[in-house]
């Protein structure tokens, strides 16, 4: 059973471009969570999705950021018109049910660098 | 809103010694789960231990154990017989909310 797969591992974008980060949850997991980790900081919750639904997006910036988890395919975190401050590691985690009661398994992250 | 506070940005321990990492939290819920995750230089997030709030018994996993004080909303991690491989950033988490982390150094 493959773990949570994130790609790409590293992504470089120029200011103003779009960044698309992909996350394939573990087999059988229908809950996906996205986190952002700035250098030397902790993980900040961004969004919680269940298949085709956004459950909690309280940590997502109101502009330029969006997330989806379609019925088929990976979850996508999309950042439009990237700025230098978006440079960070973005982690995806998945769980078979609400993380409230179960462990969330993390991917290895995507390191986004905006130049 | 839930909050998680780790008051020790950095800690160090001698190999084979014991170290305790602190974590306090705040939540209005009565039933919840707490986690400690380890993030080594590879940046992979690894679950170390999990505690269910309704269980009074402290969780243990080999050399890792917790001191869970529900009334005080405290959830500290004790690492016994520290090994060089324990060196990492440790995050305390309450459901989806993470603390800022404690960087643990293990000295040979």
- Helical residue percent band of chain A: under 10%
Given the C-alpha coordinates, what overall shape of chain A results?
globular
Category by helix and strand content of chain B: mainly beta
Whole-angstrom Rg of chain A = 13 Å
Number of helices of chain A: 0
Task: Estimate the mean pLDDT confidence of chain A.
Answer: 92
Quaternary state of the chains: heterodimer
Percent in helix of chain B = under 10%
Query: How many strands, which pairing sense, and closed or not: the largest β-sheet of chain A?
Result: 7 strands, mixed
Q: In this structure, how is the largest beta sheet of chain B organized? A: 6 strands, mixed
Radius of gyration based on Cα positions of chain B: 13 Å
The percent range for strand residues of chain A is over 45%
Main interface by residue count: A-B, 20 and 21 residues
The first-to-last residue Cα distance of chain A is 36 Å
Describe the fold and architecture.
The complex is a heterodimer of chains A (115) and B (108). In chain A, 0% of the residues lie in helices and 49% in strands. In chain A, a hairpin with a 5-residue loop joins strand 4 and strand 5. In chain A, strands 2, 4, 5, 6, 9, 10 and 11 form a seven-stranded mixed beta sheet that branches. Chain A has a four-stranded antiparallel beta sheet with strand order 1-3-8-7, with no helix packed on it. Chain A is built from no helices and eleven strands. Chain A has 115 residues and is mainly beta. Chain A is globular, with a radius of gyration of 13 Å. By secondary structure, chain B is an all-beta fold. Helices cover 0% and strands 53% of the residues of chain B. In chain B, the strands form three sheets. In chain B, strands 2, 5, 6, 10, 11 and 12 form a six-stranded mixed beta sheet that branches. The relative contact order of chain B is 0.35. The model of chain B has no long low-confidence stretch (mean pLDDT 94). Classes of the chains: A mainly beta (115), B mainly beta (108). Chain A binds chain B through residues 33, 35, 41-45, 48, 56, 89, 91, 93, 99-101, 103, 105-106, 108-109, and chain B through 6, 32-33, 35, 37, 42-47, 50, 52, 91, 95-101.
